[in-house]
Amino acid sequence: MNAQQHDNAVSQVAAAIAEPARTKMLCALMDGHARTSTELAAIADVSASTASAHLGKLKELALVRLHVQGRHRYYSLADKRVAQALEALMVIGHDATPEFSPRTPDRLQFARTCYDHMAGTLAVQLHDRMLEAGWLQAPREGAREYVLSTAGEGFFAGLGIDAQALAGLRRRFACPCLDWSMRRPHLGGALGAALLQEAIRRQWLTQDLDSRALGLTALGRKEIARRFAVQLVEPDTSKARTANAAGAGRPDLTRAP
């Protein structure tokens, strides 16, 4: 691909993402779930035919992938790189509007999925703790991945995560992923994905079916605090209840990106 073709390709992708309905669809798929065109039409608040046209364009540009199961057709993000690009754009968009007061629900900001790994306040706290404890070592100059120490291997083994097996996968092992709400890194890559899967398997976290939000269970609060030796900073649920009561009848914001 020459320079002109590269520039054109970037422009086409940027134009596709810039359309508000397509942006809503892509952000809805960042939780890792596949959805039908009907579901995505409702999320984007467009007609079924318009949604199909948008999805066709996104598929043409390799931003989404179509899955056919019998008579059913589902769409998902093409791969994790699309989610990473969207997350980066959210950071830029947040920085570009300094006077904007975020309306992201506290629960979604506290813990959510970023494609296949954990994001939000909780994820950033755990990321910082892993560096502080020396389980992860910051990327060396010129490198883009964390190095897992011997102590770190032991820590993750204690969670049932085989770090050496993950390192052999055809994807980045452990890397910083900039969190759009915190504007600081959380843990991405195969290790970040494995940590989220294990937290859900152990019922430390629950995953919403209709949004990216993750819920911290009582068991999760106890076990994460004990194993990571952190004091978790959780959202003020009483304030959230008051806001919900005051805003009864307002649109549901739990689908916010």
Topology of helices and strands:
Layout: H1 3-18, H2 20-28, H3 37-44, H4 48-60, E1 64-69, E2 72-77, H5 80-96, H6 106-110, E3 112-114, E4 117-119, H7 121-132, E5 136-137, E6 147-148, H8 150-158, H9 163-167, E7 175-178, E8 185-188, H10 189-201, E9 205-207, E10 214-216, H11 218-228, H12 237-246
Antiparallel strand pairs: 1-2, 3-4, 5-6, 7-8, 9-10
Helix pairs in contact: 2-3, 3-4
What does this structure look like?
With 257 residues, this protein is α+β, with helices and mostly antiparallel strands. It folds into two domains: 3-78, Arc Repressor Mutant, subunit A, CATH 1.10.10.10; 83-239, no CATH class. Helix content is 50%, strand content 14%. The strands form five sheets. It has a two-stranded antiparallel sheet. α2 packs across α3 (37-44) and α3 packs across α4. The relative contact order is 0.12.
Give a short overview.
The protein is α+β, with helices and mostly antiparallel strands and 257 residues long. The protein has 12 helices and 10 strands.
Largest sheet: 2 strands, antiparallel
Order of helices and strands: HHHHEEHHEEHEEHHEEHEEHH
Helix content: 40-55%
How many E strands? 10
Q: How big a fraction of the residues is strand?
A: 5-15%
- Summing up helix and strand content along with how strands pair, one would put the structural category as alpha+beta
